[in-house]
Amino acid sequence: MNLSKNFENNNINLQMDVQNLVGSSGDTNNNISNQQHSTKLSYEGNYQVNISSTNFELETITSSYTGLMRIYRLLYIADHCLSLRTEALLLSLKYIQETHFISLYKQIVDELKKQNIPLPNDFDSSWYEKTQRNYTNKLEKLDNDLRNFRTNSIKDSIRRGHDDLGDHYLDAGDFFNAVRCYVRSRDYCVTPRHMITMCMNVIKASFYMQNWSNVLSYVSKAEQAIESLETTTKSTTTASTISSMINPMDVTTTNNIITSDAILASRLKVYAGIAELATKRYKLAARHFLGVSFDHCSNYFQ
């Protein structure tokens, strides 16, 4: 089993490319490659876990994750728990078909065959070709949309166009191109909220690449944007309190925004803590984790 190993080695070049990329978010050269990067997770130690004396339920554990993070967790369990390997691989095959990550899909299918695990009865042998075709068609459409937005100089549409392209690359496991698109949206961010969205997107893609320095850099940028939002929110709260007798919904809306920003701040602490932990800066990691509110610990991590 090697599906969850050597991720760092496979991403060294990607990390170096991103370090060069994030210094500039210019829009010159929009020739977006459809190359997909093979990705595997890496954790120290090739250990095996025996869960025969526990009540460990795979679905219960993985239900705390969404998206690619859930798939990676399943592959990690498949690598390190023999008794759950079959179930974890079959579940990962199920969830990977909700994405365009065709390179990882092929690795999972190959691993199932290698382990002599029968493919599910509803296995779609044409999924690979159909998904590859859909990926290419959608990529062309998003790229054309972005070109049109540039031609018409629609600033907010250009920003969202870069985000849409980044999301598409991320869904396909092409994390380098995802980061590239997200970073390019920075020049079209006109509000702190836009900056936060851009930072969170870059953080998420960099997290999958295990580019920890990039994660920490954009956590800092996002926190600065949140600080500027807090100043605005305080002024809004005062105004809403005065007008609450006229429209009580104003206060409710403002409170919801404050709660949402607090959850976001906790999520940034989690990202920063994991990045520090991965680089063995344990004291800094502990400080970040202690800054996470317990009220926000039930949120899904993706």
UniProtKB/TrEMBL annotation:
Chief location of this protein within or outside the cell = cytoplasm
Signal sequence segment: none
GO cellular component term of the entry, any: cytoplasm
Subcellular location as annotated: Cytoplasm; Nucleus
Keyword terms: Cytoplasm, Nucleus, Signalosome
Q: Which InterPro entries match?
A: Rpn7/CSN1, Rpn7_N
26S proteasome regulatory subunit Rpn7 N-terminal domain residues? 124-298
Specify the protein name. 26S proteasome regulatory subunit Rpn7 N-terminal domain-containing protein
The record lists the organism as Rotaria sordida
Traced from the root, the source organism's taxonomic lineage reads: Eukaryota, Metazoa, Spiralia, Gnathifera, Rotifera
